[in-house]
Amino acid sequence: MNKTVRIVLEVVLAVVALGLAYFLYASISKPVKFDEEYNKRGAACAVKLKAIRTLEESYKQTYGCYCGSFDTLFNRLLTEDSLRITVKVVNYDKLPSDTNFVLEEIPELEAIKKGYITRKDTLVNPIKQLLETKKLMVTEADGSERLMTEQEIRNLRYLPYPLGTKEEFEIHAGQVEANGAFMVPVVEVKVDIDRLMSDMDEQLVVNKKDKLVSGNKYPGWKFGSMTESITEGNFE
Q1: Rounded to the nearest 5 degrees, what angle is found at the Cα of 145, between the Cα atoms of 75 and 71?
Q2: Of 175, 172, 170, 191, whose CA–CA distance to 229 is shortest?
Q3: Dihedral sign from CA coordinates of 31, 37, 40, 44
Q4: E strands within 97-235?
Q5: Dihedral, CA atoms, 46, 51, 54, 55, nearest 10 degrees?
Q6: Mean pLDDT score of the chain, rounded to an integer?
Q7: Taking the CA of residue 101 as centre, how many other CA atoms within 13 Å lie in the half-sphere pointing to its CB?
Q8: pLDDT digits (tens, 9 = 90+) for 182-206
């Protein structure tokens, strides 16, 4: 074998070795990267689903049932003063003139009995109430928190991935029989892995879905159920 042929063979073998090394690396790293993306997208889903659940619980507190429409859920909660709450009103004209008197030091029931304060039912906007109690928050990249804007609340309906999508979570609401005696409201909001990871490797998505199903797990992210009165999420 002359020198030229030997050099060519060595080059070819080196290229083949590099190709095999790259193929081996890709075959190992691809599933790892998929799992990282799966976890990242799942975390983003959990943030939105928790916020939607907060809205659904407020809707139920306000109207006595859950809502199966994002349009109705957002429009009613954002525009109607329909949540009945009890507030305390201080009757300043009935407070003792004693300068040492401190209303906060008196038990509430005693203060009510003496007429110092009055409990009053009033209607407030459900979303405003949630914001005032800091139940609709956004966590920034630096870890700081701020209140959600109205547009961010309305955008909760859209899946966080694939980026730029306008696809929505599935939302259902209704009633189921409890203990064979009465009907209770139920709600379910979800997205399956096929939709949330539609831009990922199809075979890896199929493999992940099969693994979840074989483990008796919902192949996606959700909270609630249409068959039992629960609001827990499978992401918790």
Answers
A1: 15
A2: 175
A3: negative
A4: 117-124, 137-139, 145-147, 170-178, 182-192, 220-224
A5: -130
A6: 87
A7: 10
A8: 899 999 999 999 999 999 999 999 9
Q: Are strands 137-139 and 145-147 parallel, antiparallel or unpaired?
A: antiparallel
Q: pTM score, two decimals?
A: 0.78
In 3D space, the residue among 147, 128, 158, 142 whose CA is nearest the CA of residue 49 turns out to be 158
CA-based end-to-end distance of the chain: 67
> Tokens at residue 208, please?
């992940």
The percent of the chain in helix, strand and coil, each rounded to the nearest 5, is 50, 20, 30
Q: Which two tokens stand for residue 48?
A: 């939105």
Position 178, amino acid: A
Q: Can you tell me the distance from the alpha carbon of 224 to that of 191, in angstroms, rounded to the nearest whole number? A: 12
**23-63 tens-digit pLDDT:** 655 566 688 899 999 999 999 999 999 999 999 999 999 99
Per-residue b or e along 45-77, where b marks 16 or more CB atoms closer than 10 Å to that residue's CB? bbebbbbbbebbebbbebbebbbbebeebbebb
